[in-house]
Amino acid sequence: MAGQVATGSRSGLRSALPLLLPAYLWLTVAIFLPLSAMVFFSFMTELPLAGKVWAFTLDNYTTFFSQGLYWRLLLASLRLGLEVTLWCVVIGYPAAYVLAKVLKGRSREAIFLLVILPFWSNGLVRIFSWAMVLREGGILDTALNAVLPFKINIDLMYSYPAVIIGLVHSYVPYMVLTCYLTLQAIDDSLIEAGRSLGASRLQMLKRVIIPLSMPGLVAGAALIFVPVVGSFMEPRILGGRTGTFYGTVIEDQFVAVFNWPLGAALSFILLAVVLVILALASPVLKRAA
Amino acid sequence: MAGVQVSSLSRSFGAHKALDDVSIDFADGGFYALLGPSGSGKTTLLRQIAGFDFPDSGRIAIGGESVERVPVEKRRIGMVFQNYALFPNMSVADNVAFGLSVRGEAKATIASEVQRALDLVQLGKLGSRRPHQLSGGQRQRVALARAIVTKPRVLLLDEPLGALDKALRVDMQIELKRIQREIGITTIFVTHDQEEALTMSDRIGILRDGRLVQEGSPEEIYDSPKSEFAATFLGDANIFRGETTGTGIRLPDGTAIAAGAGATLAAGAKASCAVRPERIRIAADSGMSDPNANILRGQVSKRIFAGNNSTYFVERDRQTLKVIVQNTGADRLAEGQDVVLRWSPESTVLIATS
């Protein structure tokens, strides 16, 4: 029996090979090779361009540990990732619930489209439109002053809240989509069964719906947390001087300072830290899911 | 525990009348089947009694208390769903405990009540399992235990045996009936399976297009159906259509059929007669004579042998009649053979054509 299963899966792999090969070839060429080059760079003193002399070194990595600045920036970025993820849960989960369990047919499609829309618009356009809304004398400021009887000053531009707003806007669709999928899979009769047993809506949410949609929450959190920790576009444009994060420093190394080796080293440290966090969290998350 | 009274209940979804002026009295402690084809409104009625949906008009009372505007979580009913609807994130014991624990009962009380309920459905040892580790029949029992552990006033069952295979169904029918008797709870059971309705319930309500067609004990409905629909939906029936003579009908070809049961009608109106296939005697000739019996001649077109009985299809005057004969070892009739059918007027039910 066991032998049969083994041969079965081996021949299954062989027939699956033609289907897998294109994807893996592409991944090898497009991601693995450049990434290997980056690993290589991170151990060099100089970029081997224009005949510059270079040597192997660990300095790029020791810089991170010897200078408190990078530590502080990494912590700030991790905190930013955590906050953005939390806001995405707070905003995205209720929306996903309404989409999956309350709305039907046309209205669901329409609301869905509004959620997906940020995906389809260019990231820069999105961020600059936020800049127009958030700055002093911008749309939000003008609108509030037109409605309110007293004078207030709204100038969120170049602040931490502006960075959070921009990032949450960019990433909340991930949370909506992953939670929508798991909520959608919860049979309505489960909710009816719970109510027939006397459970209030809040009790149903706490004891049945949230536990059953945990896989979606976890997947959404992972999809949001990781890129936000390394993000640089939103912090730079909406954060101004307050928008210096780990991601913007890495970007600087590549596009401004041309210290690719340091930029590469910082990137891999970030990758390692994120992997460690996910590994530490996985037993907890698995139990919850 | 309590009886349920439904009076003049109506509910429409857009232009569709899902329930049209339905009134039924469900007696305290009874086992009641709501029987009907899909779309007949039986599930809508059950959901109204449960409180998942509110009526447009009419009244629902549980134990004499009006509940038609009370939401489901406050109605103190127990419900078993067709797909069981067990919480997959909880163990069997936690599923059964759910109703007690959301009420804030003490832990020790919950544990002993859950064990009692699981013992009642003969799953006492499986409390720590997860729903996905159970068979269909076991899940059904867990769903039942979960519904009755809170001591609801009424037990509502929405096609609870629909997902089980035939052998398991019969076991569960007996089991369900035993448990219902043991706790004496008023039970309302939705089904489209006429056999299930006949064998399990004290009373049956037949629904069609949102209306209650007939209501009564299984024997009453089977022996004296009040409409062609009731006659053919609950069991098999041969239907003859013609004009009434007051005590029977006259078929278009002039043959008279005497009826000993059913409606009293003024002569001349259109009416039908229903005869159950097992009430008809079939023979090769008109040897024995009973002056009162209804007699028809025809030809066997098909015979289906089913072991303990045989079904004959007999053609006469562009109509196919069905006759079921117990296997007594007597001579069997061949296909193509001319036969005489006879049955007593007492086996014939006169039905007004609406």
Automatic annotation (TrEMBL), chain A:
InterPro entries in UniProt: MetI-like (IPR000515), MetI-like_sf (IPR035906)
Keyword Transport: yes
Pfam family, one: BPD_transp_1
Any Gene Ontology biological process: transmembrane transport
Predominant subcellular localization, coarse grouping: membrane
Membrane topology: Multi-pass membrane protein
Subcellular location: Cell membrane
Keywords (A to Z) from UniProt: Cell membrane, Membrane, Transmembrane, Transmembrane helix, Transport
Matching Gene3D superfamilies: MetI-like
Keyword Iron-sulfur found: no
Leader sequence residues: none
Transmembrane segments: 23-41, 84-103, 110-133, 158-183, 204-226, 262-285
Any one GO CC term of the record: plasma membrane
Sequence ranges assigned to domain ABC transmembrane type-1 in this UniProt record: 74-281
Family in the record: Belongs to the binding-protein-dependent transport system permease family. CysTW subfamily.
Protein name: Peptide ABC transporter permease
Taxonomic path: Bacteria, Pseudomonadati, Pseudomonadota, Alphaproteobacteria, Hyphomicrobiales
UniProtKB/TrEMBL annotation, chain B:
PROSITE patterns per record: ABC_TRANSPORTER_1, ABC_TRANSPORTER_2
Keyword Phosphoprotein annotated: no
Any one of the GO BP annotations: putrescine transport
Reaction catalysed by this enzyme: ATP + H2O + polyamine-[polyamine-binding protein]Side 1 = ADP + phosphate + polyamineSide 2 + [polyamine-binding protein]Side 1
GO terms, molecular function: ABC-type polyamine transporter activity; ATP binding; ATP hydrolysis activity
Principal EC category: translocase
Superkingdom of this protein's organism: Bacteria
Domain ABC transporter: 4-234
UniProt keywords, alphabetically: ATP-binding, Cell membrane, Membrane, Nucleotide-binding, Translocase, Transport
Family annotation (Gene3D superfamilies): 2.40.50.100, P-loop containing nucleotide triphosphate hydrolases
Annotated GO CC locations: ATP-binding cassette (ABC) transporter complex
EC number: 7.6.2.11
InterPro entries in the cross-refs: AAA+_ATPase, ABC_SmlMolc_Importer, ABC_transporter-like_ATP-bd, ABC_transporter-like_CS, Mo/tungstate-bd_C_term_dom, P-loop_NTPase, PotA-like, Transp-assoc_OB_typ2
Summary of the function given for this chain in its UniProt record: Part of the ABC transporter complex PotABCD involved in spermidine/putrescine import. Responsible for energy coupling to the transport system.
PANTHER family, A to Z: SPERMIDINE/PUTRESCINE IMPORT ATP-BINDING PROTEIN POTA, SPERMIDINE_PUTRESCINE IMPORT ATP-BINDING PROTEIN POTA
Identification of the protein by name: Spermidine/putrescine import ATP-binding protein PotA
Chain's gene name: potA
